[in-house]
Design brief:
With about 160 residues, this protein is mainly α. It folds into two domains: about 5-90, Membrane-bound Lytic Murein Transglycosylase D, Chain A, CATH 3.10.350; about 95-160, Roll (Membrane-bound Lytic Murein Transglycosylase D, Chain A). The protein has seven helices and four strands. A two-stranded antiparallel ribbon has the order 1-2. The protein has a two-stranded antiparallel ribbon with strand order 3-4. Helix 1 packs antiparallel against helix 2, helix 3 packs across helix 4 (about 65-70) and helix 6 packs across helix 7.
Length: about 160
C-alpha cells in the first residue's frame, strides 16, 4: 500500500510517539510528551517566484540535500506553486510562529497609520501587498519602484491612495 506524502511525513514526524504508544505499559505519558517535544515539526512550504532550493534550505536551516531527500527530488529544479515538505526543530517552529505573529501586528499597526508602511527586516513586496489587500504591481506602481526592488529596513512605502 502506498501512502500520500503528507501521511508519510506525519508518520515519520510521530513515529517514535506511535511506537511508544504501542508499548505504553512500559512508557509513561510524560516520557512520550518529552519525546514528542524533541521531534522535528513537518511544514509545507509553497515555492514562490525567485526561490531556489538553496534559499529555502537557508530559510529553514537545513541542507539542500535534506530538501531533495524529503521531497524525493532528483534534480535541483523546482516550480512556483510547488509544495515542499520541510522538517524543522520544535524550537525553530515556535520562533517562526512568534516572528509571524509579530509581523502581522506590525502590519496591522502600519495599516492604521496614514497610508504608509515602514519596512521591517525580512519584508517583501509580496507580503506587504498581501497584508494591505493590493497587488504587488499596484504597490510597486504607487511607490515608483520595480516589482523586484530590494527593500531596506526603515524606508516608508505608500500603501494607500490619498483620499482613502
Amino acid at each position: 500500500m502506498c501512502l500520500p506524502k503528507e501521511e508519510i511525513g506525519t508518520f515519520i514526524t510521530n513515529e517514535t510517539a506511535i511506537y511508544n504508544y504501542l508499548k505504553a505499559d512500559t512508557t509513561t505519558s510524560q516520557e512520550i510528551l518529552a519525546m514528542q517535544a524533541s521531534q522535528p515539526v513537518m511544514k509545507i512550504h509553497k515555492v514562490r517566484r525567485g526561490e531556489h532550493l538553496s534559499t529555502i534550505a537557508s530559510r529553514y536551516k537545513c541542507s539542500v540535500r535534506d530538501l531533495k531527500e524529503w521531497n524525493h527530488l532528483h534534480s535541483y529544479r523546482i516550480y512556483v506553486g510547488e509544495r515542499l515538505t520541510v522538517y524543522i526543530s520544535p524550537e525553530s517552529a515556535k520562533e517562526k510562529e512568534s516572528y509571524a505573529s509579530n509581523k502581522k501586528e506590525q502590519r496591522k499597526a502600519s495599516k492604521i497609520n496614514s497610508g504608509y508602511y515602514v519596512i521591517q527586516n525580512g519584508d517583501t513586496l509580496w507580503d506587504i501587498a498581501k497584508s494591505h489587500g493590493i497587488s504587488v504591481k499596484k504597490l510597486a506602481e504607487m511607490n515608483n519602484i520595480s516589482e523586484h526592488e530590494t527593500l531596506r529596513k526603515g524606508e516608508k512605502l505608500i500603501v494607500a491612495m490619498s483620499g482613502k
